[in-house]
């Protein structure tokens, strides 16, 4: 095997050159006469312009028993307006080479438009029509309701989605909106009709409580005129933002097994809630959680994937549910991945051992430095496209953060030490206060999991 | 070392230069100083079509081993060094090629070149049984997670096996079979490296905030001494008759949430004008919410919850036109098939309207602009055209070619290819107690976007992956 001794010339590992300065793109903030707040940012070379509209219509604002009405309303915005039928609207949008997506989540409804700069004006006109004068035809709303009912069994059959739904159901108090599926259940979706969709629209969709973010290459485009002629025509009475109730959770350590007979893997979702981005601990939590499960060289994958081969990958992350300066928000902190059925017990044992080791011995300075270098260093890559910048700016709006929040985050990460990162990681995932959902073959895994001492085990029928 | 550049006016301002080292490594450079980032992309001209019977999945398993260290890079050093420098990285394997890519802050470009050269020249110095055993398990779990443990997960594999006959190099998909993954040996991996991993079987693209002269000096320094060789075995010929000649059909009875109709049509090879015409035909028929099949099946007849066409472009075998329809309520597959055939027949007769052509071309143009919006996307496209068609400059004019296709060409390719005797059909019939739901629910987001993700492959519209990644 002569080529095991390579024939090439070797050189020492090169050192980095001089970094060129990069800052998170700061937006320019303004407002239209109709009360719509506008954030804009010119990004040279980004020929697909991204527009995000944040509408203050949180899921908690849905009327009792009508979970899913925000979702159906968001989808129905593009199913016909005062100018176009549903089919015409879709055709006009595609004629612009544009995509328009709308979805409802805990902080509110988000409408996202992407369009080549050359066709921005007509696409903004369609977006404005959707927001300003949706027709909500009975037949289209009824079809969207049926489609949504058709989708639900597909979601429940997907192990990762099934686990996420079960985790929210187990973690949050019964009766709270956050405990229930974002897009409703079959029981609630069936009740939705055009009248309830219109009522939700009338109550919550208006320019005064909405923000539009626009990012891209504006060269040769009069953005002011384009906005004034389109979303500038959207009218609505002023209103106060909807008042939400604080998010709480029961993190008593326990295990829910969702039975999926014959599954060749067990889908694992382990979670609890933690502070949101308004809390000073957020940068330390981001660092600590990254050290645990941010990439395949993090603590969890180093053992579960790269040493044991139990999984294609396990990740730990914090997902902000809602974030607000009054402390009513929370982040869902999750460890998730899937492991081969026959090694479910050993994989969970190793996973808990990783958590206990971090709690006992702490993270190392090398791990903390690596995490900072990655999380700070990837910023210019991560924000190459207009869509990535617009999305983060819109998240900041939804989470009631200042426009320079992300820019400041990089400084705060660099200032966060190993001790703080360790403390945040340990408090994010305390080994005795975790709710574990396993979607897998209960007959093969439940008994083994009972012996692990990670909490009382309940088995739910998957059907 | 030759320099050619396509005039910027025809390419939206993008240009690229080409170079060749004496060991045969082809290099493509493209400057863009808008953002201080640089992409390195390396395509090796080897994919699952080069695999032999009994060793399916080897190209992809090998791709994982490329991240397990090389002579000067211990263990997971490729990941650690790139991510620690603020970069992102991954690798993927498809039928026709294997690619490795890093996007770096511009001042860390040299590190990525050094890393890629180290594993191109010296992987075997570090490759051992322990890495192989570990990554074999990882890849088997990748297979379970992405295919075996999700509803309809093996549809792509089944349809591929139908549309490309037994013995054809594209008959199996890149993930391979569990039995073959179990059978792969260290010696297989070594032989694979010696056969296919050589500078003269690769194209390197560097795109972004770079100094081209300095970049070329680095490339020469790190890659220049790696010996080229002629060990490569050409893939078996993938040519097939344009039309299958009969409808191939398989009924799958599995525990899935609803009946489904999936079919694959044989389409023209990638790189031809007919392939661009076929892409437009599929877009008009099933490329979005204004497409004919969506309007017919989802909006009007209400037979389906989703209906769409996607295209998997292949250069060395017929491309695949992929139809995916999931039923709504208690709709019958037979009614869906009748409606699809009616729409296909009407399209073959009348072709697209002028408005439909305008919409489809606008959609494909935006998709192309999206691919070129990042330095990594641009580097990948330059490699693609260099490896598969011998000329990276073609990447810069690809959208122009789509816009030149005429409505009559679109009609012609649809009439010739989108026919009942040119498709493989998979019908899913649910079994088991999937209907009564103890706890009805809905979508929750499941994975964070911050982790490095395996890129999704075409046909994006049909939501099918045709390539395997090395991490998640």
Automatic annotation (TrEMBL), chain B:
<dbReference type="Pfam" id="PF05193">
    <property type="entry name" value="Peptidase_M16_C"/>
</dbReference>
<dbReference type="InterPro" id="IPR011765">
    <property type="entry name" value="Pept_M16_N"/>
</dbReference>
<comment type="similarity">
    <text>Belongs to the peptidase M16 family.</text>
</comment>
<keyword id="KW-0645">Protease</keyword>
<dbReference type="InterPro" id="IPR011249">
    <property type="entry name" value="Metalloenz_LuxS/M16"/>
</dbReference>
<feature type="region of interest" description="Disordered">
    <location>
        <begin position="430"/>
        <end position="472"/>
    </location>
</feature>
<protein>
    <submittedName>
        <fullName>Insulinase family protein</fullName>
    </submittedName>
</protein>
<keyword id="KW-0378">Hydrolase</keyword>
<dbReference type="InterPro" id="IPR007863">
    <property type="entry name" value="Peptidase_M16_C"/>
</dbReference>
<dbReference type="Pfam" id="PF00675">
    <property type="entry name" value="Peptidase_M16"/>
</dbReference>
<keyword id="KW-0482">Metalloprotease</keyword>
<feature type="domain" description="Peptidase M16 C-terminal">
    <location>
        <begin position="185"/>
        <end position="364"/>
    </location>
</feature>
<keyword id="KW-0862">Zinc</keyword>
<dbReference type="InterPro" id="IPR050626">
    <property type="entry name" value="Peptidase_M16"/>
</dbReference>
<feature type="domain" description="Peptidase M16 N-terminal">
    <location>
        <begin position="26"/>
        <end position="162"/>
    </location>
</feature>
